[in-house]
C-alpha cells in the first residue's frame, strides 16, 4: 500500500533527509550545502510503501508562486507510483491553486511532470551539475 504523509515531526523529517542524502548527495553527487537550502520554510512530505519510507518531496512559497522541490524516490521503489503520489499530494496541499505552481525538473524526470499537467518554460539550464528545465502547472 502506498501512503503519502505531511511531515509533522522531527523523526519523519530526518527520514526524508536520509532519503534525499541517498538519492541526491550520494546517488547524484549533489553538493550538501545546496541540498539543505530553504529547509525551515518548506513543507515536507514522506511516501511510505507498505509502511517503508520510499520517497520524499517538499514545497515552498517563493516570490513567484509555489515551487515544488526535492522529489526523491529510493531506487528500489521507482516505477511503483511513488513519485506520482508525492506530486499529487504536494499539489493538493498548496493553499492557493491560482498562483504559479512550478518546479525545476531534471530532464530524466520531465516526462513524469508532463503526465501531471506541467509544461516546459524556457531553456534548459544546469543546477547542481545536472541539466534541468523549468516547468509550470497548467
TL;DR?
This protein is an alpha+beta fold and 138 residues long. It contains 4 helices and 7 strands. The longest helix is centred in the N-terminal third of the chain and has 17 residues.
Account of the protein in words:
The chain has a domain at 2-97: Aminopeptidase, CATH 3.40.630.30. The chain is 28% helix and 41% strand. It contains 4 helices and 7 strands. It has helices spanning 10-26, 32-35, 82-93, 110-115; strands at 2-6, 43-49, 52-61, 65-73, 100-106, 118-127, 130-137. A 7-stranded mixed sheet has the order 1-2-3-4-5-7-6, sandwiched between helices. Strand 2 (43-49) and strand 3 (52-61) form a beta hairpin.
SSE blueprint and pairings:
Elements: E1 2-6, H1 10-26, H2 32-35, E2 43-49, E3 52-61, E4 65-73, H3 82-93, E5 100-106, H4 110-115, E6 118-127, E7 130-137
Parallel strand pairs: 4-5
Antiparallel strand pairs: 1-2, 2-3, 3-4, 5-7, 6-7
**Percent in helix:** 25-40%
CATH class of the domain at 2-97: Alpha Beta
Shape: globular
Q: What fraction of the residues are assigned to beta strands by DSSP?
A: 35-45%
pLDDT under 50 segments (min length 5)?
Answer: none
The CATH architecture assignment of the domain at 2-97 turns out to be 3-Layer(aba) Sandwich
Going across the major beta sheet, what is the strand order? 1-2-3-4-5-7-6
Q: What is the overall pLDDT average?
A: 94
Distance between the termini: 29 Å
Q: What is the CATH third-level topology name of the domain at 2-97?
A: Aminopeptidase
The arrangement of helices and strands along the chain is: EHHEEEHEHEE
Largest sheet entry: 7 strands, mixed
Whole-number radius of gyration? 14 Å
Amino acid at each position: 500500500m502506498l501512503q503519502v504523509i505531511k511531515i509533522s515531526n522531527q523523526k519523519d523529517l530526518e527520514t526524508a533527509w536520509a532519503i534525499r542524502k541517498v538519492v541526491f548527495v550520494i546517488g547524484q553527487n549533489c553538493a550538501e550545502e545546496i541540498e539543505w537550502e530553504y529547509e525551515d520554510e518548506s513543507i515536507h512530505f514522506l511516501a511510505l510503501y507498505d509502511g517503508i519510507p520510499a520517497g520524499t518531496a517538499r514545497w515552498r512559497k517563493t516570490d513567484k508562486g509555489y515551487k515544488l522541490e526535492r522529489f526523491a524516490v529510493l531506487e528500489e521503489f521507482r516505477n511503483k507510483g511513488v513519485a506520482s503520489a508525492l506530486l499529487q499530494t504536494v499539489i493538493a496541499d498548496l493553499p492557493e491553486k491560482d498562483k504559479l505552481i512550478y518546479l525545476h525538473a531534471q530532464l530524466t524526470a520531465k516526462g513524469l511532470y508532463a503526465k501531471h499537467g506541467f509544461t516546459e518554460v524556457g531553456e534548459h539550464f544546469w543546477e547542481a551539475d545536472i541539466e534541468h528545465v523549468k516547468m509550470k502547472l497548467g
